Amino acid sequence: MSFWRANERAITVISVLIGSLVFWELVARVLDIPQFLLPAPSVVIAEMFKAPGLYAINSLATLRVTLTGFGLAVVLGILFSVAIVHSRIMEHSLYTLLAALNSLPKVALAPLFVIWLGTGSPSKTTVAVTIAIFPIVIDTTLGLRSIEPDVMNMAKVMRASRWQILRRIRFPHALPALFAGMKVAISLALVGTIVGEFVAGGEGLGSAILAAQGTFDTAQVFACIVLLGVLGTILFYTIDFLERRLMPWHHSQRLLAIPGE
């Protein structure tokens, strides 16, 4: 296997990022755009090196809340999906509640979480969970239900219990859908964390953006945005990496390994 084939995805992502930064730099320089409107990438990078410790602390704070919220969303989402699949009452009630919750603007809910839970991590984590849980439930429920009738009939003939059917048939079959939901949820968890930081303040890149906005420090705002983009990309491709490692048997992963597909 050639070096390009073995590292095609990483090389493509890095090339796109570098190309975007070069284009951004050229636009800012050629058009002579004022820095307070659109600072060049070189200015943004220089801003990061002015206070690397501060950006690192805020990035870690945002990452910690995002991962906590995402983890809780995955656990709760799977439990809700199992309940929905096995109970019509839970299906009607949970689906209705989740649909109503998902339709509400989370910026409007965040102040309530701050009132109830304070300005620390719990309120920010709750916002992240509230935003991230919906795709987990929808996709996992679809995966748990998408079983061939013949397979279910065979399991019933063999007198398999509900737990055995869930563990040996439903859950393995639902893994592709679960990972699809997780890829969406990890980005939404990051968005929810930023919303929580906007409202609750404290540490985090969202709070740093608000502080920079108050002083019209556009370079600092862009530095935080770039770091958020980097975090989001790393988190997304981490889920993608886990999917490829845990599901090498799935046809979507086999197609990726076939040249020309």
Structure, explained:
- It is a single chain.
- The protein is mainly α and 261 residues long.
- It has one domain (39-256): Orthogonal Bundle (MetI-like fold).
- Helix content is 84%, strand content 0%.
- Helix 7 (121-145) packs antiparallel against helix 9 and helix 10 (205-214) runs antiparallel to helix 11 (218-246).
- It is globular and about 75 Å long.
- It starts with a helix and ends in a 5-residue tail after the last helix.
Quick rundown:
With 261 residues, this protein is mainly α. The protein has one domain: MetI-like (MetI-like fold, Orthogonal Bundle). 84% of the residues lie in helices and 0% in strands.
Low-confidence parts lasting 5 or more residues at pLDDT below 50? 254-261
Derived from helix and strand composition plus strand pairing, the structural class reads mainly alpha
What is the terminal separation in angstroms?
16 Å
Which second-level CATH architecture applies?
Orthogonal Bundle
Task: Indicate the radius of gyration in whole angstroms.
Answer: 22 Å
In total, the number of strands is: 0
| Overall geometric form | globular
* Helical run tally: 12
Reading the helices and strands in chain order gives HHHHHHHHHHHH
* Beta-strand percentage range: under 5%
Key features of this structure:
single chain, 261 residues, mainly alpha, MetI-like fold, 12 helices
Task: Give the arrangement of secondary structure elements.
Blueprint: H1 3-6, H2 8-30, H3 41-50, H4 52-86, H5 88-103, H6 106-117, H7 121-145, H8 149-157, H9 162-200, H10 205-214, H11 218-246, H12 251-256
